[in-house]
């Protein structure tokens, strides 16, 4: 009987933990107008062209996290080339692989090795 009570207690605690984690997992997505999105990507490209890598990194990271495949590829390249706060080959390859997720030809060629 004692084991059954312990099992039920642990089950309830686990259920409460999962429910609270699920309830707190509401994505905080900022809605952005198209022109603001376009301007952000343009600003990222300008910053990159002028070698302002910290600014370009921040802008491309925002777009990459929002699912923009081109930004994911550029961000991956920036990691590989050491143009990010910390150069990280593994993270760079992960971003490039993610950009090739839907078999876009220009990104798939970057993700293929050998």
What does this structure look like?
The protein has 114 residues and is mainly α. The chain has a domain at 34-111: Serine Threonine Protein Phosphatase 5, Tetratricopeptide repeat, CATH 1.25.40. 72% of the residues lie in helices and 0% in strands. The protein has helices at residues 2-23, 34-49, 53-65, 69-81, 89-99, 105-111. It is elongated, with a radius of gyration of 21 Å.
At CATH's second level, what is the architecture of one domain? Alpha Horseshoe
- Radius of gyration, CA atoms, in whole angstroms: 21 Å
Global shape = elongated
If you average the pLDDT, what whole number results? 76
User: What's the CATH class label of one domain?
Assistant: Mainly Alpha
Q: Which ranges are low-confidence, i.e. pLDDT below 50, for 5 or more consecutive residues?
A: 18-27
Largest sheet: none
What oligomerization state is this entry in? single chain
CATH topology of one domain: Serine Threonine Protein Phosphatase 5, Tetratricopeptide repeat
Task: Count the DSSP helices.
Answer: 6
Number of strands: 0
N-to-C series of helices and strands: HHHHHH
Question: Structural class, from secondary structure content?
Answer: mainly alpha
Strand content: under 5%
Distance between the termini: 61 Å
Helix content percent band: over 70%
